[in-house]
Amino acid sequence: MTLNLEYETEIKLHLDYESIITKVVNMALDLEECPYEIELNLILTDNKEIKDINREYRNIDVPTDVLSFPMIAYESPGDFSILEDEDNDSFNPETGELLLGDIIISVEKVMEQAAEYGHSEERELAFLTAHSMMHLFGYDHMEERERTVMEEKQRQVLEELKIYR
């Protein structure tokens, strides 16, 4: 796995964010039974930058906690079999790794939401990473049934890692 992790804010999380993110990504890959080594880009930023990105890509002019940019157009969530039929644009030609996508997390939102929900910043960062990984696997939460499935998968990731509220 190649995890391209960039920390692009002066606001500091006082925890081992790289270890937390890596554990969550690996557990999500295991639970989803991803058959490939992956490449993932993850940026930790602040509210101003994530607001700019949110406005540019979603026409929503407010900061959000996490943005997910999947590289795969799944026919059904978590179904990696579609990659067998593609021209392999989904793979890095140099490493052979599956280009899973990009995750952008607001460090400020991690801190704000941890305080708001009464749990640790570690738990909030882990949750946002798990949530975004599910989006990169094609899951969504726009409809009730989809939301239930996605929330259960997020819960499983955190529970396996013993990261609780």
Automatic annotation (TrEMBL):
Just give the chief location class.
cytoplasm
The reply to whether Aminoacyl-tRNA synthetase figures as a keyword in the UniProt entry is: no
Cofactor(s) of this protein: Zn(2+)
InterPro entries given in the database record: MetalPrtase_cat_dom_sf_prd, YbeY
Q: Which Pfam families match?
A: YbeY
Its keywords, alphabetically, are: Cytoplasm, Endonuclease, Hydrolase, Metal-binding, Nuclease, Ribosome biogenesis, rRNA processing, Zinc
Task: Return the cofactor note field.
Answer: Binds 1 zinc ion.
Q: Its domain of life?
A: Bacteria
- Annotated GO MF terms: metalloendopeptidase activity; RNA endonuclease activity; zinc ion binding
An example of a Gene Ontology BP annotation on this entry? rRNA processing
Q: Name one GO cellular component term.
A: cytoplasm
Q: Where does Zn(2+) bind?
A: 131, 135, 141
- Main EC class the enzyme belongs to: hydrolase
Write out the annotated subcellular location: Cytoplasm
- Its EC number is 3.1.-.-
Q: What does the similarity note say?
A: Belongs to the endoribonuclease YbeY family.
The job of this chain, per UniProt, is described as:
Single strand-specific metallo-endoribonuclease involved in late-stage 70S ribosome quality control and in maturation of the 3' terminus of the 16S rRNA.
Q: What is this protein called?
A: Endoribonuclease YbeY
Q: Which organism is it from?
A: Anaerocolumna aminovalerica
Q: What is the lineage of its organism?
A: Bacteria, Bacillati, Bacillota, Clostridia, Lachnospirales
